[in-house]
Amino acid sequence: MRGTGGISKIKSEFIGAFEDKDVIHIDKNASMIILSSQTWLNDSVYFVYNQELKLGWHFISDKNSGKIDKYIGPNEYLNLIEHVLNRITKIEKNRSFKLEYLNLASKEITENNLKSALVNLLILVRENHRLNKQQVIFVLRELFIILHQIENQGIDKMYYIGNLVYSTDEKLVEFNEKYKQIFEEGRNINHEMRCYVWDILKLYESDILTNLDFVLRNLEVYIRDDSVILNEISVKHYTENIIENLL
Fold first, then answer.
1. Domain with 233 in it
2. Which of 100, 68, 107 is nearest to 84 (CA)?
3. CB 164 within 8 A of CB 179
4. Does residue 60 register a pLDDT over 60?
5. How many CB atoms lie within 10 A of CB 162?
6. What are phi and psi of 144, to 5 degrees?
7. Which of 30, 162, 208, 236 could form a disulfide with 203 if both were Cys (CB 3.0 to 4.6 A apart)?
8. Domain shared by 17 and 81, yes or no
9. Domains in the chain: how many in total?
10. Is residue 6 over pLDDT 50?
């Protein structure tokens, strides 16, 4: 965490299991370091250290309410720690959601159900606030490549049209009109779905399109229903690569 007078930036990193005498290397420029872990009773235990104040706090949060249950440290900074806990809780919920769907995708791969694995990854990307922008861009790029190995026999035109973006933004109006016509005609849909993902990627990169929920539902249904994977080895490789890069 960096910044003075407030939390301006948070970097979250999964460390994994540590043993006695193991060393954690931290960013020396960080103003605050937060270590969190889960007990075997599923309680969340935290240690917070402020490098500017040279002070540290230990506390346990209640697994039901999320509020501080036990606290060791200077009382005059308790409000700060409660504020930090709220931010940590939000991060951990996002991470928990992300790991849930990555684990589901990994399980589907082991069972050779590649379409279900891709659907789980798409659900995660649709909830794009769970990932950072670069992660979303990476997944969309990989999906664009994967789509070259997937074919679908037909689509529900009205469903696809209903999930388009309705906005007054000139670029989004253009996107909406383009794909409304394409979905109505239903021709060469496999090629057009690759273009669809590419256009979504470019709009997202430019911060023109920020909510990916509905537009990616079309891709989810395209892959899930009536599709055929042409090269399972290739699709498996790219899907595993997505999971590895999101962990």
1. 112-246
2. 68
3. yes
4. yes
5. 13
6. -60, -40
7. 208
8. yes
9. 2
10. no
